[in-house]
Amino acid sequence: MKNLYIALSFAVGTLTISAQNKDTKTADNLFNKFEYVDAAKEYMKLVENGKSDGYVYKQLADSYYNMFNPAEASKWYAKAVETNQDAETYYRYAQMLKANGKYEEANKQMQKFASMSPSDSRAKAFKENPNYIPRLLGKTKQYDVNSMDVSSDKAEFGPVLYDNAFYFTSARNGARKTYGWNEEPYLDIYKADYNTDGTITNASPVTSLNSKWHDGPITLSSDGNTAYFSSESFKEGESEKVKQLKAKFSQVYIFKATKNGDAWGNITPLPFNSKEYSCANPSLSRDGKTLYFSSNMPGGIGGIDIWKVSVTPEGTFGTPENLGKGVNTEGNESFPFIADDNKTLYFASAGRQGFGGYDVFEYDTTKSADAVNMGKPVNSEKDDFSFSFNSQKNVGFLASNRNGNDDIFGAIPVCGVDVLVVVTDAKTGAILTNATVSILDDKKNVIATETSNDKGEVKYRVECEKPYVVQVAKDGYEGNTFAVAKSKGPSSKVDAALQPIDVIVTPTEIVLKPIYFEFDKSNITQEGAFELDKLVQVMKNNDKLVVLAKSHTDNRGSDRYNLNLSERRAKSTVQYIISKGIDASRISGKGMGESEPKVDCGKDCTEEQHAQNRRSEFLIVK
């Protein structure tokens, strides 16, 4: 039924992956020996010589994945998935994208992974919560949106709340004449009670405003004594006959009414109404000085535009002004609502980029920036429009046909916390710029990764009452994690003081925090990378230092299996160090299997003891 106002206005005027071959033999052999740096070089030669395919791209990406180089891994996974890949490749690609802060792209790859491996627990977890936390919560989820019982099986829209009086427009009156557009009754203005528990009851038509034609939506002055509402020009005896359609059409006009006891009277059309165009959907600012409305009057940008007109204390009106390109497009913009602050304008647009149909946008009338899409769940793939907000009750309302009919929904603001991370030198207090800061949820999923600015700051917006962790790293400093406590907001500060790298170097050993591996795996984790960067820094500062990396496993599995596993872990460690610019002649690795446990717990090891035994140690050779 929202399209009524537009109608009235315009009626009158795949390839399979190749297997290993002789070209890839050298690179494959290096890869299978876990020499990922050299393997990557050999795969790159194939790319440069025009001998690449999906297999080569995947192997190249996997090489960087195992070296924990998210940027390069993502680059080559993107090429790899241009051809069909196995499910795990899509999963790894998603993980690398997340590490780069590219969450929407990561979700696309997770969707592919989930479709290929629906029974995988990772796939199930993704389906349950695909987006984690939007990087910009205020843009992607500003409100929780809920259906409201005030809706009927007919069209309702234009919801506005003044004190405890809830007004809306509805076609529910079955006693009314039906309208040929959709065989629903003509629209009426309704008033209902807004209760302390958020329910809306006792809806009844505002008979002193309703006519036999379409009426609504409505807007009220702050004192509740003046109303502006939409109705048809038939009310003034004005219409136009279209012979081809064998019908008469009215325009939509805006009318003013004043309170007369419990009823409305003195109903008069506004002076800028015209038989040549429509004016509809009024919204009066709380100071009573500006009336916003939609119209296809001359001078607009295209279609239906949002306009404003000044209102004097004497009740006269200025010349309507188009709100310009910050709001309007060549498409249709309608249903304006000016918030209680007299500057925030909400409106619906079918011309701006959105999810589909009409979307609700937010616009600061005091700035020149473009309007901003309010994101989901306010918007959907269907029509979403006539958004309003009552700051006193801290509740919003909108209409949407996302369920197949124009219904009214409640919009409750989502509680968000603005997290400010400030990175400093723990010894001097100096600000640290260009530090890498990642924020993780309670499941250790990386939500976003940013770089500290010239003030050492990184800002994130997260959900209330949920714990988070930030990981911070910078060359020359020990990487560290800092807790972000549960909070109701509105803000939280994290002082991330990093210790300058001061690694203990004995005559025989470089003592780092343990480099732990996940059970039965040999790839370098993000936590492991933070710690290994300290070793890299020590070796760069001491260019004659030669190091042996010894890798150990826990005692689960056979001796042979554990020895092979530790060899793979040692090679992963060595490859990571080399990938950071250390010459291969200065770092070597040796797998020790389970032969030298840190905790000799036999067959009765706890999970914590097993984890301590899965480690790497660094001995000084010379």
Strands ordered across the widest β-sheet: 32-33-36-34-35
In helices, the fraction of residues equals 10-25%
Largest sheet: 5 strands, mixed
What value does the Rg take, in angstroms? Answer: 33 Å
Mean pLDDT figure:
85
Oligomeric form = single chain
Estimate what percentage of residues fall within beta strands. Answer: 25-35%
Work out the number of β strands: 36
Structural overview:
This protein is of the alpha+beta class and 622 residues long. 22% of the residues lie in helices and 32% in strands. Helix 7 (103-116) packs across helix 8 (121-128). The longest helix is centred in the C-terminal third of the chain and has 21 residues, at 559-579. Mean pLDDT is 85; it is low at 1-19 and 132-138.
Write the layout of secondary structure elements.
Blueprint: H1 4-10, H2 25-32, H3 36-48, H4 54-66, H5 70-80, H6 87-99, H7 103-116, H8 121-128, H9 137-140, E1 143-147, E2 156-162, E3 165-170, E4 178-179, E5 184-185, E6 188-194, E7 200-205, E8 215-220, E9 226-232, E10 240-242, E11 247-249, E12 252-260, E13 263-269, E14 279-284, E15 290-295, E16 305-310, E17 321-322, E18 333-338, E19 344-349, E20 359-364, E21 372-373, E22 384-390, E23 395-400, E24 407-413, E25 416-425, E26 436-440, E27 446-451, E28 457-463, E29 468-473, E30 480-484, E31 491-498, E32 504-505, E33 509-511, H10 526-541, E34 547-552, H11 559-579, E35 587-593, H12 607-613, E36 615-620
Parallel strand pairs: 25-31, 34-35
Antiparallel strand pairs: 1-24, 2-3, 3-6, 4-5, 6-7, 8-9, 9-12, 10-11, 12-13, 14-15, 15-16, 16-17, 18-19, 19-20, 20-21, 22-23, 23-24, 25-28, 26-27, 26-29, 29-30, 32-33, 33-36, 34-36
